Amino acid sequence: MRFVWIFLGLVSLAAGVIGAALPLLPTVPFLLLAAFCFARSSPHLHAWLLHHRTLGPPIADWQRRGAISRRGKCLASGSIVLAFVLALLFGAPAWALAVQVPALVCVAAFIWTRPD
After folding, report:
1. Do 19 and 54 sit in the same domain of this protein?
2. 9, 12, 51, 87 - which has most CB atoms within 10 Å?
3. Which domain holds residue 37?
4. Are 75 and 91 in the same domain?
């Protein structure tokens, strides 16, 4: 089972790193998932991720206070708006937009109610 957790952690880490470059793919949720998986499988990988200069601080902020940085909130909000605009531009059906709008509003509300 240990190798399954390591594999899931590595996949999540890769998605998080890719998400840092792609505006519609979130970064921090995948990093949190990677930390969760590594905590159950590899103390070495878990410690490496938590102490990483770039990837570690958002995880530590979330673990300590449930916090999301102001920059992270702004980037996430921009991605939310971009996702909706792209759905409109690509002609998503009305029912899809009707599902997307409340989901995106709930995600934005969750993000903006977390401490900075």
Report:
1. yes
2. 9
3. 2-65
4. yes
Residue 56 to residue 6: CA distance in whole angstroms: 18
Residues 92, 96, 101, 104: what is their CA dihedral angle, to the nearest 10 degrees? Answer: -90
Indicate if 61 and 15 belong to the same structural domain. yes
CA distance 96 to 99: 5
Task: Identify the CA nearest to 38 among candidates 26, 54, 53, 51.
Answer: 51
**Which residues are CB-contacts of 88 (< 8 A; sequence separation ≥ 6)?**
97
Per-residue model confidence as pLDDT tens digits over 5-49: 999 999 999 998 998 887 667 788 899 999 999 999 999 999 999
Output the six-digit token pair for 20. Answer: 């840092």
